[in-house]
Specification:
The chain is globular. The two termini are 22 Å apart. The longest helix is centred in the N-terminal third of the chain and has 12 residues. By secondary structure, the chain is an alpha+beta fold. Strand 3 and strand 4 form a beta hairpin. It has an eight-stranded mixed sheet with strand order 2-3-4-1-5-8-7-6. The chain has a single domain, classed as 2,3-Dihydroxybiphenyl 1,2-Dioxygenase, domain 1 (Roll), CATH 3.10.180. Bound molecules: cobalt (II) ion.
């Protein structure tokens, strides 16, 4: 843990839901000179995602790969835009327990695998002031550096 008692050690990523991920990648490259660090299709979530590194954090572009994906539903309801914020934590399991103990709603009752070897869990926006929050723990084999 850090010297303060915050559960959050960094902003891991800001996730943006888009219809056309290649067009969004081209936009970030052409406009801001940002290039893709990581690209992955996550079939369990029905998404394809791209990570673009900015300093110690990422922009995550996410697009659905099937109609029943939660991101597809988000796009249909809200359109393109910020989907969730991912915060890095030392231990997702510990953070989840603490959040639940305080009576807040979570989406994932237990930690699960995320992209690029991370462990993640989602916290429900209902008791988080309207923001879907993702807790992100780096893989055990690596340091806390975001790039691999
Ligand atoms: Co995320």
């Amino acid at each position: 843990m850090a010297t303060n008692d915050s559960l959050l050690t960094n902003i891991d990523h800001v996730a943006i839901a888009v219809y056309d991920i290649d067009a969004a990648v081209a936009y970030y490259d052409d406009t801001f000179g940002c290039t893709v660090t990581h690209r992955e299709r996550i079939d369990s979530d029905g998404v394809e995602e791209v990570l673009i590194r900015v300093a110690d954090s990422y922009i995550q572009l996410v697009t659905p790969t099937r109609d029943d994906s939660p991101v597809a539903k988000f796009l249909a309801k809200r359109g393109e835009g910020i989907h969730h914020v991912g915060y890095r934590v030392t231990s997702v399991a510990q953070a989840l327990e603490q959040i639940k103990a305080q009576g807040h709603q979570v989406i994932d009752e237990v930690p699960r695998p995320g992209s690029r070897g991370t462990t993640v869990a989602f916290v429900h926006p209902k008791t988080a002031f309207g923001t879907l929050i993702e807790l992100v723990e780096e893989g055990k084999a690596s340091s806390s550096q975001p790039s691999r």
